[in-house]
Amino acid sequence: MHISAWQKSTYSPDGSNCVYVAATPTGTVHLRESDDPDVILTTTRNPLLSLIRSLKEDSQRR
């Protein structure tokens, strides 16, 4: 799988532990972490948005 449009998440710090995101025209979203760039998670927009919302809600409760 060749993905050329990886973008670093704006929430990732400089250096290590960066999350990269790439989207395709078909709506597939790919995620990878800088420490292990060969492992790529693949999802679509709606499940990813649900995960992000859930994580934000959880962090606000703490």
Walk me through this protein's architecture.
The protein is an alpha+beta fold and 62 residues long. It has one domain (7-61). Helix content is 27%, strand content 35%. The protein has a four-stranded antiparallel β-sheet with strand order 1-2-3-4. The protein starts with 6 loop residues before the first strand and ends with a helix. The mean pLDDT is 86. This is DUF397 domain-containing protein. InterPro entries: DUF397. It holds the Pfam family DUF397. Residues 5-56 form the DUF397 domain.
Strand content: 35-45%
Strand order of the largest sheet: 1-2-3-4
Helix tally equals: 1
Helix content: 25-40%
Alpha-carbon distance between the termini? Answer: 39 Å
Domains counted in the coordinates: how many? 1
Structural Rg: 13 Å
SSE topology string: EEEEH
Report the structural category.
alpha+beta
Number of distinct beta strands: 4
Domain DUF397: 5-56
Organism: Streptomyces avermitilis
Pfam families: DUF397 (PF04149)
InterPro entries: DUF397 (IPR007278)
What key phrases describe this protein's structure?
35% strand; single chain; alpha+beta; 62 residues; four-stranded antiparallel β-sheet; 1 helix
Give a quick summary of the entry.
This protein is α+β, with helices and mostly antiparallel strands and 62 residues long.
Helices, strands, pairings?
Layout: E1 7-8, E2 19-23, E3 28-33, E4 36-44, H1 45-61
Antiparallel strand pairs: 1-2, 2-3, 3-4
